[in-house]
Amino acid sequence: MKRRIFCLILILLLPIVAQATTYYVRHTDSCGTCGDDENGLTPSTAWITIGKATDTMIAGDSVWIGAGDFSGETMVLSYKDYGSWTHFIGDYDGS
Question: Has residue 32 got a pLDDT over 80?
Answer without folding.
Answer: no
